[in-house]
From TrEMBL:
This is Tetratricopeptide repeat protein. It comes from Saccharothrix syringae (Nocardiopsis syringae). InterPro entries: TPR-like_helical_dom_sf. It comes from the Bacteria.
Length: 315
């Protein structure tokens, strides 16, 4: 790609391919080290990419550029969300949706709605999250994408579990598995390729983690093997996903009164968390620390609560 301030009057496929490659590299950094490792670079790349819109291009290249730039804004938004900057995240998602709609890319629109929903879910508003996931499903159906449908159904299940609606959560989780069985994850677009069998297993664990919290602690017995499998299944460069699964697994061992395992898993979660620049990691750890603090009669739980409190205070 030409220097940021001097793009050519006309661009071709090679210019867009370079933008796509930059996004791939930034996305890998986000997965590996958290949004804080690449947020500035992603925002700068999105701003630079916007300048390409002023160049002339063939219709095919123009559409590819719109999709690539929408994907980059989608990633920039995610890194902002991951580092606690909700306002900038929403602005980047708004721009991403505009570009994706202009490119007539409903599958990318579906992914954007999924990610906005995750912001609401993280902030404790499952109703708003469900609204976003529902909008995403409309786009996923238009795209004819069972993979996008699986992502959205799984996250609907997570939100419903957070509301304590066990029947609806399990129904949506079943639909997610059905949609996933009908797709080929390896063929998914770059922005959705993270969602493979391991990630679906992790969300299965998160749904039961929430049900253990909102409905019945017995769900911890289902969450534990799912999360254990996900932790083992994530590839080596998915540090943040593995860390988040370990945090949830720690909570379930506490609910299950297995304080020795909770301490061991919690220690591993804290070790990995130290290498991930993500506000969400600290946000997820805090309630686990509070949960551990309720078991004051066990020295291992008390120590875990103290270690998490120290980590969260420094985050």
């Amino acid at each position: 790609m030409a220097d940021r301030g001097q793009y050519p009057a006309r661009i071709g496929a090679a210019d867009v391919a370079e933008l796509e490659e930059r996004t791939r590299g930034l996305r890998a950094r986000d997965y590996r080290g958290g949004g804080g490792t690449c947020r500035g670079a992603a925002i700068a790349a999105a701003a630079a990419g916007e300048r390409l819109l002023g160049a002339t291009a063939s219709p095919r290249v123009r559409r590819r550029l719109l999709v690539a730039l929408a994907d980059l804004h989608n990633l920039a938004a995610w890194t902002c969300f991951d580092t606690g900057l909700d306002g900038p995240a929403v602005r980047h998602w708004t721009r991403a949706e505009e570009l994706a709609a202009s490119a007539d890319s409903p599958e990318l629109v579906a992914n954007i709605h999924y990610r906005v929903g995750r912001l609401h879910l993280h902030r404790g508003d499952p109703v708003a999250a469900l609204g976003c996931f529902g909008q995403g499903l409309v786009a996923a159906r238009r795209a004819g994408s069972p993979h996008a449908t699986a992502i959205l159904r799984a996250n609907q299940a997570w939100a419903l579990a957070g509301r304590g609606d066990r029947a609806a959560a399990l129904r949506r989780l079943g639909q997610a598995h059905e949609a996933f069985a009908a797709c080929r994850p390896a063929d998914a677009p770059a922005w959705a390729r993270f969602f493979d069998e391991t990630d679906l297993t992790a969300i299965n664990g998160m749904v039961h983690t929430e049900l253990a919290r909102t409905v019945d602690p017995v769900h911890a017995a289902t969450a534990i093997p799912a999360l254990t499998s996900a932790v083992a299944g994530y590839p080596g460069d998915m540090h943040r996903s593995r860390t988040l699964s370990l945090i949830a697994l720690t909570a379930n061992h506490l609910v299950d009164n297995d304080f020795a395992e909770a301490a061991a898993v919690g220690e591993r979660a804290l070790e990995l968390a130290a290498g991930v620049d993500s506000a969400r990691v600290a946000d997820r750890l805090r309630p686990v620390g509070e949960l551990a603090g309720r078991y004051r009669g066990d020295a291992r739980a008390r120590e875990l609560a103290g270690r998490i409190a120290a980590f969260a205070a420094a985050a």
